[in-house]
Amino acid sequence: MYSIAARGQWLVQCLSCFSGVARSFCSRTYFGDGVDDGFMSVEGLLNGDWKSQEIDFPDAKPESENSRGGHSWGNFNGRRSFFGNVRGDAEKVIVILQQEGPGYDAKAALNDLQIRVSGLLVREVLLGILRTINCANKTRCAKLAYKFFVWSGQQENYRHTANSYHLIMKIFADSEEFKAMWRLVDEMIEKGYPTTARTFNILICTCGEAGLAKRVVERFIKSKTFNYRPFKHSFNAILHSLLVVSQYKLIEWVYQQMLIECHSPDILTYNILMCAKFRLGKLDQFHRLLDEMGRSGFSPDFHTFNILLHVLGKGDKPLAALNLLNHMKEVGCDPSVLHFTTLIDGLSRAGNLDACNYFFDEMNKHGCTPDVVCYTVMITGYIVAGELEKAEELFDEMITRGQLPNVFTYNSMIRGLCMAGRFDKACLMLKEMEFRGCNPNFLLYSTLVSNLRNAGKLSEAHEVIRHMVEKGQYIHLVSKIKGYRRC
């Protein structure tokens, strides 16, 4: 292992390699349709590893299973039957709530159901309401959800969990009932529930748009009830939550508060800060943080290397990236598929497809089998460059090698086919993906329909829409469009 001095020297060498990275790469997008600029692959990795587990499970076993002993509860059919019954009860509850109005007593109707209230039931009902919220019904959804929340909390042998509070808070947030949402936070604290990173995420997502984000952060910094056990102190949890919702400037401010309160940064803190600095285009500060991390005795970890490879890729620095990959091996951190994919993604966005091909071959030589994400990155790069034939070759290769395309792979291919005017093949690919068990998403349908319409192929576009109706997705997509585009 390298000494602290050696690590510091290596970091200084990295700084010289990074000095030519252009700031303009920080805001580049693909296709101009709002797709992220590539750094989300790095942030997504950080978020995935630090995500809290807050899923409710049934708080007791069904009586029929208890009577047979613990062994029967482990039976798959028994569990499936139980969860099926709970979902059935949740649907009955939602039907009753939807009938709420003058002359109808929903509370009495719920009591008449004589169902057993559990954490799973509450979760299913609240999630069901959350999925239906749009501009037209948001106020009513909030009222119905809260009516059920109060009623369920009054039932015998049941007590709300932090997760159920978070769900009703999310409903209030989506319904723009902000005062009610804050009252729930106060109620949680009064009743002794821990305010976790999930609580913080809901509030910061809502209040950030209203210009209240800094006040929310200040409140959480001072709160004695803020509790997120995977972190050594709550500042890292707050920094991570701000990274999730892209509040990069607030990350800088929170870090200063962290230092004021004499908390020392660790490797996790540095990784978050470097993500934020890069997003803000402050590459000089990015470099200083990297240098400071080395002087503080911290060795780059899996995430740090991924961040550095992303920066080098987007800066079109293939030689420096190769040196970094070799250094990783020397210090015992073998590059993974993810590291190669991150680098290839950055180089692709920088327009250096030759370097992408080189590192794609290198990862195979080092025993890293490209996965569906890596293939999709390569395919997308070729589509952006207008090299559809090479994209098709890779698409066929990935299937031959047992890597099934996902919805993002198909979206890139369909977009490329439409750009080349091969609309028949694009429509056939839609059918092919469904045959393979891959369900189209909103972006894919939107890509195909908009390209067909722009080409004057209205009948084909209507056929795709008709297909959406048959699949039961059209109403859901219209709801999303109304809720997010017309408000």
TrEMBL record:
The keyword Repeat applies. Transmembrane segments: none annotated. This is Pentatricopeptide repeat-containing protein. PPR repeats lie at residues 266-300, 301-335, 336-370, 371-405, 406-440, 441-475. InterPro entries: PPR_rpt, TPR-like_helical_dom_sf. Keywords: Repeat. Belongs to the PPR family. P subfamily. It comes from Rhododendron griersonianum. It holds the Pfam family PPR. Gene3D superfamilies: Tetratricopeptide repeat domain.
